[in-house]
Every structure is written in C-alpha cells, then in structure tokens.
Amino acid sequence: MRPVEIRPDIFWVGVNDRSTELFEGLWPIHDIGVSYNSYLIRDEKTALVDLSKETFTEDFIEQVAELVDLNKIDYIIINHMEPDHTGVLQRIRKLVPNAVFVGMGKAIEMMKDFYGVTENVKVVKHEEMLSLGKFTLKFLFTPLLHWPETMMTYVGEEKLIFTCDGFGGFGSLNSSIFDDDYEDLSLYEGEMLRYYTNIVAAFNRNVVLALDKVAPYPIEVIAPSHGIIWRKNPQRPIELYKKWIAYGNGEADPGVTVLYGSMYRNTERAMDQVLEEFAKANVPVEVFNVSGVHPSYMLPSLWSKRGLIVACPTYERAMFPSMVHALDIAEIKKVKNKVAAYFGSYAWSGGAKAVFDGYAERLEWDAVGGLEFVGQSKENDIAQIRELVRAVAQKSS
Ligand code: FEO
After folding, report:
1. CATH class of the 4-248 domain in this structure
2. How would you classify the pairing of strands 10-12 and 39-41?
3. pTM for this structure?
C-alpha cells in the first residue's frame, strides 16, 4: 500500500506482512498477516513515529521516501523498542545520520544493546513535549504495554494518539487502514482480542495504568502500530480494552472453554457427555483439541470465559504434553480466576490430575474436582464426569 494521509500532514507509512508464519516466532499469523504501522509528520521539523521490521526495510524506506527526502527527517520517535517496530533502525541511522532518536527510559539502553546506537539520542520524560512547528508531540509513559520502555505519543492539535502495541491487532490491512471503511469490524476486533491475550494480557495491570494516563486527553484518532486506525469511533478500542482488562481482574463472560487431548479416544469418548451437560445447562462452550490447535487461538476464550474443562490422559505419570503446553501458555498469560475441572484416562498409573491441581493452585482457579479413570470410562466414571461438568456449568452461567 502507498502512504495514506490520516490528518493534514500526518501520514501512515506502514507495511503489511503477509509472509511471516509466527509473530514473535510464537503466534500464528500465516493466514491473516499483520501490519507494522509507522507514521510521518511533515512540519517545520519532520518526524517519523515508529519504524518497521527488518525484513521490510526496503518497503519501509520506499514508503517514507515517497513523501520526504530522507535527509529532511529531524526526529525518529521510538514508542517501543521491540524489533517489529525498530528492525530497520540501523539502516535508517546510516541513511539519516543526523536524525535524533527520541525515546523514554530503557529505550536508550535498548538502542545501544540492540543496535549499538548511542549518539543523537534524546531521552524524554512522561508528559514532556516536543514542538515540530504547528504540531507539538507529547509523550506519555505507558510501561509494559508492552515492554518497560514503551510510551505513546499524543498530538494535541489533531487529538490524535500513536499508541504502538496498545489497541493493536493481528491482521494485515486489506482494503483500507481506517475503521470507517469496514462495514463489519468483527474480524479486526477478534484479532485485536487475540493480540491482546497473546501479547499484552500478562501486563493487564499496566494496561489499566496506561488507560488512566490517556484518559485526560481528548481523542479523535487512535493510530496503533498494528491493525486499523480508529477515527470514526475512537472510543470503541478503549471500551474493548476496559472489558478485556476486567476479564483479567476476575470478571468473565458466561461460558466454558473445553480443552481436550486424547491418544486413543478413551478421554475423547467422554466428551459427548460433557457437551451434552453444558447444552442442558444452556452454557455456551468453545472446544479446542490441544493436539491440533495452537494455544494462540485458545487464549481469547480462556481469557474471557468463566469456566474451564481440562480433559486429557495421563502421559508417563504426568499430563499429556500438548495439554501441558496449552496450560503453560495460559499460565504465562495469567489466565486466572476460572472455575475448572479435570478428567482423563490412564493406562497403568495416574498423574495428570496432580499436574492440573498445580496449575489450579498457581492460577487461583476454583477447582471443583477431578477424575482419573483407567482405560475406557465406565458407567460410574461417566456419572462422576457429568457431576463435575454440572458443577462447572452452575458456576459458569
Ligand atoms: Fe508490536 Fe511489542 O511489538
């Protein structure tokens, strides 16, 4: 895509990434892509806001060069040092040696550690301002959204805020960069939640603080560094964030996430009874096979729904490894305060339930119980599984 003017003299100069399989080497984006949004402000002084991933160096430089002679860039605002936004930094330094990099706190150390850049660097503090001429930038310190150095940049004259990872989402920008050009935003909002749970959720408390810092400023445009720009309804991403923050603090939607894995279908065969009980209780359910689905896709459900069923066999006196992987990711992302139960088959020795109990304790789940059964589930096992499911359903509706 070519540069797009988002306000007079303020341009999107981002790139779409449709070739990376795993964002951060972890999160699948092969089918949806992602955008790295950067912005150029043309004024008496010219500023670039955020950069791009190294793979896209040539595309990025081409975008910027279409609008301005690179030598005319005075400031490069580094809202966040993660290399999806700074991978082109060394190349830009060579092309524009006199431009001043502007960042907060640890960004300065990181510029040195990541790219060996120590000169022409300006350290700014929370609410410090930088005049470009007709526009004045104001920097807001929003640490851990998503790294410790992260800040946002507010342009008061346009009531516009560059939020970097904040309010960002997966999904390349297919036909437009603006919210008002899409009739249905469910795809981008869904990918925004996946991004939130995959990338940001572990720092939920810091997101609350970041929203508090942004709250006093009137906002007409939210311009993140991934995903769409919100100008028709800039309150929408803020409302979504407030809802998702609340999930991290114990609020939850009615419903249950069912994670299951099975080696020879002994655990899987009990699944029909599980789903039947939830249907009877009228509790919405999302089901994921941990052997085939990446945890990235489970996290939005885990984050937002009240209940959790963990169904998998014991594997060599411990838990089925694919389930351990899913639950490890849930633990890293602080999926707390669930009503949960475990069941699963074993061949000669149990062990998975003890592993489940460990997750439940560390993540402060209300564990209503668990059942290990040998081989195929018998009538008595099924009755106990139904009992567990009813207990989870009752607390998840
Ligand atoms: Fe988009 Fe935390 O980088």
Report:
1. alpha beta
2. antiparallel
3. 0.96
- For residues 230 and 237, the answer to whether their CB atoms sit within 8 Å is yes
Backbone φ, ψ for residue 271 (5° rounding) = -65, -35
Number of C-beta neighbours around residue 27 at 10 A: 22
Residue 250, classified by CB atoms within 10 Å of its CB into exposed (0-12), middle (13-18) or buried (19+), is exposed
State the average pLDDT for the chain.
Answer: 97
256-396 and 4-248 share a CATH fold? no
Residue 131 pLDDT class (50, 70, 90 cuts): very high
- 339 beta partners: 307, 366
Q: Note whether 92 and 58 are within 8 A (CB).
A: no
Atom 3 of ligand 1, nearest CA residue: 82
| Residues across the chain | 397
Residue having the nearest C-alpha atom to atom 1 of ligand 1: 165
Domain limits, the chain = 4-248, 256-396
Rounded (5°) CA angle 214-219-220: 155
Burial (Cβ within 10 Å: 0-12, 13-18, ≥19) of residue 118: exposed
Is the pLDDT assigned to residue 18 strictly greater than 90? yes
Nearest to 342 by CA among 315, 301, 308, 393: 308
**Contact by Cβ (8 Å): 184, 99:** no
**Closest atom, ligand 1, to C-alpha of 146:** 2
In the reported structure, the alpha carbon of residue 80 is separated from the centroid of ligand 1 by a whole-number distance in angstroms of 7
Residue 1 confidence (pLDDT) above 90: no
Kindly state the tokens that stand for 13.
């100069």
Given a contact cutoff of 8 angstroms between Cβ atoms, the answer to whether 373 and 352 are in contact is no
17, 20, 22, 23: CA torsion to nearest 10:
-30
Cβ atoms of 232 and 179 closer than 8 Å: yes
CATH code for the structural domain at 256-396:
3.40.50.360
* Other C-beta atoms lying within 10 Å of the C-beta of residue 198: 25
Three-class SS state of 304: helix
CB distance 53 to ligand 1 below 6 Å: no
Whole-angstrom Cα distance, residue 271 to residue 107?
49
| Alpha carbon distance, N-terminus to C-terminus of the chain | 45
Contact yes or no for 322/293 (Cβ under 8 A):
no
Distance 146 CA to ligand 1 centre (A): 7
